[in-house]
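Narrative of activities, Objective 1.

The group set out to show that a structural description can be obtained from nothing but a protein's sequence at a throughput compatible with the screening campaign. Below is one input-output pair from the validation batch, recorded exactly as produced.
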Amino acid sequence: MGHHPKLAEEFGSLRQELDSPFAIPSEKSSDMSVKQHLEAQQSAIRRRKKVVKDLDDILLKIRQKPGFENFLRPASEAFFLSAAHEGPIVVLNVTELRSDAIIITRTEVKSIPLQNLSHDSLVKYCGTSTSDNKAMREVLEWLWKGAVQPVLLKLGFYPQEVNPLPRIWWIGVGLMVKAPIHAAAKFKKGRVHMTTHQYCVPSYTSTMRYVGRLAPYHHPMITTVPIPPSGSSL
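Output recorded for this entry:
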């Protein structure tokens, strides 16, 4: 908020105070009476409530400034859907409890369970050396079976190839950021039989907001001009 330094300073000060613990000495470690301790505690609570209210007021003022209308607000469903204008966005979330793919398209947000993508396997495969061809084939086939194939199937991009190839934005959560989704493949007799690139154009992003910022913009078209205006021949 460089254009609004006073609001930024006040907001930062209130956030810092709200994040700080109560500065009230305990009864055993101070010379305060029980009554004094209770009064100090009530005073601190009143101050904390005032800070919360002041912070809400500052947020309202900040959101009234051009360009800050959504400051600290969660993204809306409409934002997620518009972010998928370049192609579906897939968030791969693997935990010890369960694994899922959250799929965002232009029309809906949905999730599918990834039953073959376990957290234990993810931890195991993260340490695989890229120079170990046999081990890497195992990793890539695990990613194909556990993540890529079920997502492609849900999107309708598999088993029949789509022409032109659709773009898919992949977002890995936690250790999944290290997963080479673009290279996931199914092998047959030691050779690549199916691969991610065969069914989509894979792209990576770390956040939904980055893809969302691309929505209002159009990609430039580059073409050759043999004889440019007011110029010599190329």
